[in-house]
Specification:
Elements: H1 2-9, E1 13-16, E2 26-31, E3 39-44, E4 48-57, E5 65-75, E6 80-84, E7 91-96, E8 100-105, E9 111-116, E10 120-128, E11 131-138, E12 142-147, E13 156-159, E14 164-169, E15 173-178, E16 182-187, E17 195-198
Parallel strand pairs: 1-5
Antiparallel strand pairs: 2-3, 3-4, 4-5, 6-7, 7-8, 8-9, 10-11, 11-12, 12-13, 14-15, 15-16, 16-17
Length: about 210
């Protein structure tokens, strides 16, 4: 944690209390999407999710002091493998080693489990006019949409025609790369419509 804060703030003196440091290897770190908030989350193999805030004292002095303080700690049932913190930062998505995907509300700090899928490939989320929308993509070809605050069941789900390999999204659309050189394009406001794109390259012989 000291080296992480120093990489962001330069070679200033950084203080972190020993009792606030994870007890095992750190797997993933992610900053709050709002650059005005110097807050970051740490997921570790000790099955913990920790939120830290970086503060600076002695501004204007020759050697200002930077400290990293623990804001919140959640102990989970399995190691934390991945974190996603989409803008504007209302929900922090947490994936653990048992295939459990959860959402931590910010600033309420309530943890909600909403998908148990050992075959989970991708998880993301976007802020929509009607509320937060979470996206999940699994090895069984299921693309699901989850609308906050009710994560008890998907708001919408579809089966893709091909096995997904990876995905990415922005505020408007989701793009999925699949086997057989196929890609799927889905507009987030039209989840029932999937446009398939064949990415095969046909090599024309020289004449």
């Amino acid at each position: 944690l000291q080296s992480l804060a120093m990489s962001v703030l330069g070679s200033q003196l950084v203080e972190v209390r020993d009792e606030e440091v994870p007890g095992d290897t750190v797997q993933v770190v992610v900053f709050h999407p709002d650059p005005k908030k110097v807050v970051f989350a740490v997921g570790s193999w000790d099955c913990s999710l920790r939120l830290y805030e970086i503060s600076e004292t002695g501004l204007g002095s020759i050697s200002p002091k930077v400290s990293v303080g623990l804001v919140h700690c959640v102990v989970l049932e399995a190691p934390v493998l991945d974190l996603r913190w989409p803008a504007p930062g209302e929900l922090l998505m947490v994936l653990t080693g048992d295939g459990q995907l959860s959402a931590l509300t910010i600033p309420g700090l309530a943890l909600t489990k909403f998908l148990l899928s050992p075959g989970l490939l991708f998880a993301g989320g976007v802020a929509r006019p009607g509320g937060f929308l979470a996206l999940t993509l699994s090895c069984d070809k299921t693309l699901a949409y989850w609308a906050a605050p009710d994560f008890s069941r998907p708001a919408h789900s579809i089966k893709l025609a091909y096995t997904p390999l990876c995905a990415d999204h922005n505020q408007q659309a989701l793009l999925v790369a699949m086997d057989h050189n196929q890609m799927a394009f889905v507009k987030l406001d039209q989840p029932e419509t999937v446009v398939y794109l064949n990415m095969s390259l046909e090599i024309q012989p020289n004449v």
